Amino acid sequence: MTQATAQHAPSAGASLVIEHLRKEYVRGKAVLKDISLTVEGRSTTAIIGPSGTGKSTLLRCINRLIEPTAGRIMLGGVDLCALRGSDLRAMRRRIGMVFQEFNLVERLTGC
Ligand SMILES: Nc1ncnc2c1ncn2[C@@H]1O[C@H](COP(=O)(O)OP(=O)(O)OP(=O)(O)O)[C@@H](O)[C@H]1O
Ligand SMILES: [Mg+2]
């Protein structure tokens, strides 16, 4: 992490602010259209909706597993979409995510 980013690293209680987020997997076909929301620091938020409406896509944008097509995702004033290289890796280490498909090794015996 660079000195500049380390100085501005968000605190544990930083709010997450999403502005005008758009994600297209296929050009011109938006899964997320103009999503804006704020999640206050140290709070719990549930994102609910029918299958295929983009809940996982939103979470994958937040931890930068996928790149948003447009918009901003700010954590404590840091634009997560602008992070690259070691700064991006440092930020990812601070974001926990439990995948929908766990991808854990199956039990190999009947025990
Ligand atoms: N890698 C991908 N490439 C193309 N389309 C995708 C990709 N991942 C998801 N989609 C499409 O984006 C839309 C939103 O999918 P997403 O998985 O974000 O929905 P979800 O709300 O998490 O659904 P579920 O409740 O079933 O988990 C769906 O139409 C899905 O087919
Ligand atoms: Mg999902």
UniProtKB/TrEMBL annotation:
Pfam families assigned to the protein according to its UniProt record, in alphabetical order: ABC_tran (PF00005)
InterPro entries: ABC_transporter-like_ATP-bd, P-loop_NTPase
Gene3D superfamilies reported in the protein's UniProt record: P-loop containing nucleotide triphosphate hydrolases
MF terms (GO), sorted A to Z: ATP binding; ATP hydrolysis activity
Highest taxon in the source lineage: Bacteria
Annotated ranges, domain ABC transporter: 32-109
PANTHER family per the UniProt record, alphabetical: ABC TRANSPORTER I FAMILY MEMBER 17
Protein name (record): ABC transporter related protein
Organism: Oleidesulfovibrio alaskensis (strain ATCC BAA-1058 / DSM 17464 / G20) (Desulfovibrio alaskensis)
